[in-house]
Here is the input.
Amino acid sequence: MLISRQRLERPKAGVLPFALTALRHPAVSRLLTDHRALLADLLDGLGSPLHVVLPEIFEENVGELRRVIAETGAAADILFAKKANKADCYVTAAAALGIGVDVAGAPELVKALAGGVPGHRIGISGPEKDDALLALAVQHGCLVAIDSISELRRLARTARVAGRQATVLLRSRTAGQSSSRFGLSADERRAAVGLCGELADHIALRGFSFHLNGYSPAERATAANEMIEHCLDARRRGSLSAELVDIGGGLPVRYVEPRLWNEFLAQNEPAHYHAAKDFKDFYPYGGQLAAQAVRAIMAHPVGGGESLAAKANRYGIRFVVEPGRALLDQAGFTMYRVQQVDDRRESDGYAIVTVAGSSFSLSEQWFNSDYLPDPLLMSAGTVADEPFPACVAGSTCLESDMVTWRKIGFPRPVRRGDHLVYLNTAGYQMDSNESPFHDAPLPSKVVLRLGGGGDGLGDGVGGGLGGDGAPPRWRLDGIR
Here is the structure.
């Protein structure tokens, strides 16, 4: 996808343990290079941390994903997984682009509708949904992923009272995830298909979905093939509208160059972290590109030399894809202001940089892990002869409040008042864990458009990534 066209900044030699320099979109590079004063003013005026969201790059990612899907020959609908970021601007952009939104609760559904996404383009995938959410789904014609027989019966009652027909997917456990807490077992799935037939006045079975952890294209393709077979079985049993297979999200994002990532994995050890923290698992920051994953999923052989896409086309099956992180790739970053530096280089060999804010605004610790791409140091001064090793701590009273446990080799000493920029944080990092702990307000989100699109304040398609010289325009997210 677009990441393959980005400029890669190579790390400087001699930084220990080593650099994990973040890839960045050219538009992000222009912002950080040409509009540093604006970013500093926004951080000073709106508080630290500050999330900068870039809907233009989201729009570019949607276009690229559409193109890649078309190249595979598959038919697919895109639903943006809203759980990946709470910003309103992405939903508004999704509505303008004509894609859907995947939600898991009533608040997300209300936000999607308010952002202009029609109900028939909204999927609801949360487990065992409450009656209020089911009622909203029926009223607006949303596609509901059913997780249990009891939920299916409740939805049918809701649809009957409303005098409507609800459209559903049956979320089914795959052969490889029989112990998952999500979805119907094989016996339950067969019973649910039969029940859909009995309740046909109130329930329209459109197809099947599944829940799958991880980023393996082969596993996702295998699961999707199982769902195609479920559709064919449902058709044989009278559910002729079973034509959708929802493959979920799980499209990977590349944050750093693969070579750097492989070097990191080979050399990683507890000594590289504050307090010798020993992490067991990381996001695959240098892994496959989303475009490569889509092609691999659709080209995966599913029997007789036929690809998944070819089999789906032969049987008139359409896919639903629910990317979150992949559509937000490069579409936002997070800024912190440094408020203290505890220089322990003589005693411990590194410093502890404390920022205004906390790790709640960089949510990888939710997964008992560390956000590994190096933050950028925005400060005056020249590169020092030796790197300045430091980890980054939050300003709460929790010992575990570390924004970055890993010791970063900053190019110059970090000082109070400097700014740190964490790149590519829009996908799950910004707000999954944010909390008003210590009565601190939730961080602001600033929507930046880079010029060329009318007044620069809208959320329509084509805001001007071309760099026409116009200054960026900004507004607070949620304020139009």
About this structure: The CA atoms of residues 84 and 428 lie 5 Å apart.
